[in-house]
Amino acid sequence: MTDATPQSPMSSGEQPASGPPATEVAAPMRYFPSLTGQPALVTGANSGIGKAVALGLAKAGADVVVNYVAEPEGAEEVCGQIRAMGRKAIAIEADVSVEAEVVAMFAKAVEAFGTLHIVVSNAGLQRDSAFDAMTLEQWNKVISVNLTGQFLCAREAAREFKRRGLDRSVSMAAGKIICMSSVHQQIPWGGHVNYAASKGGVMLMMKSIAQELAPQRIRVNAIAPGAIRTPINKPAWDTPEAYESLMTLVPYNRIGEPDDIAQAAVWLASDAADYVTGTTLFVDGGMTLYPGFSTGG
Ligand code: BGC
């Protein structure tokens, strides 16, 4: 790195703690590339990972559109926290699986902030079922929110980034799209076939968009969270027994926290990641390392 802007090295001379992690928390946010002047839109930002990402981007200097589909109080609370940091925030209700709502949300966002530089397609859900009992409704719901929703948001983002074009005084890229994927873009997941199919779809959609838009200097990447402590997977961590069983799948031996994902999103959205496009960043404590093989095989 040639200059000493806020994008300074991660930390100096800190030693990793020895032994197993004493607490089950994400590392404190020490490293903040500047996202000043780069308005962001985060879908599903009223809770869980989306909320942490919205707050993380704001901490790094971005004004943020907080999208939600239900629970406006959550979205307003996130907006309040962002404003308390001195950034602008607006909550916009939209169902990401409905084209007209997505188009209207982007129009409102651009009206409010002038443009967007960062779009994090985070909204997602599960409708779990044994495969032979899975209804078409369960299948369609998951595909329409997790995959079609990401298509619609990425398309609107690309349109806005192309309209505005490159402004190197703000960012080296004309825009950044971050798709929230999952370890289940890679790990098959019985009982969750619709979800795994949606995330597998996100992976190749993301790569194909990245390939197509790279010449316009639009970067498109994904984050693949592992087990993160959020409402979507509460049964997997909210009792000691469930937690212990979950840990057999996580070599790093702690659950992920939403802030673990927020830090990855801030980095991917920043010019620190300017040469990174079409990639999936796994933030999973080693879940994709086939932990069963540490002793078996
Ligand atoms: C799912 C969670 C699950 C995690 C790891 C995520 O994508 O939404 O429910 O705990 O993957 O299996």
Poorly predicted runs are 1-23
CATH architecture: 3-Layer(aba) Sandwich
| N-to-C CA distance | 43 Å
Would you report the number of β strands?
7
Count of individual domains:
1
Furnish the topology, listing elements before pairings.
Blueprint: E1 40-42, H1 48-59, E2 64-68, H2 72-84, E3 89-93, H3 99-113, E4 118-121, H4 136-164, E5 175-180, H5 193-213, E6 218-225, H6 240-247, H7 258-269, E7 280-283
Parallel strand pairs: 1-2, 1-4, 2-3, 4-5, 5-6, 6-7
Residues 126, 182-184, 225-227, 232-233, 236 line the site of beta-D-glucopyranose.
Describe the overall structure.
The chain is an alpha/beta fold. It has one domain (40-288): NAD(P)-binding Rossmann-like Domain (Rossmann fold). The chain has 7 helices and 7 strands. The chain has helices spanning 48-59, 72-84, 99-113, 136-164, 193-213, 240-247, 258-269; strands spanning 40-42, 64-68, 89-93, 118-121, 175-180, 218-225, 280-283. A 7-stranded parallel beta sheet has the order 3-2-1-4-5-6-7, with helices on both faces. Helix 1 runs parallel beside helix 2 (72-84), helix 1 packs across helix 7 and helix 3 (99-113) runs parallel beside helix 4. The chain is globular. The model is unreliable at 1-23 (pLDDT under 50). Bound molecules: beta-D-glucopyranose. Beta-D-glucopyranose binds next to loops. The site of beta-D-glucopyranose (BGC) has 10 residues, from loops.
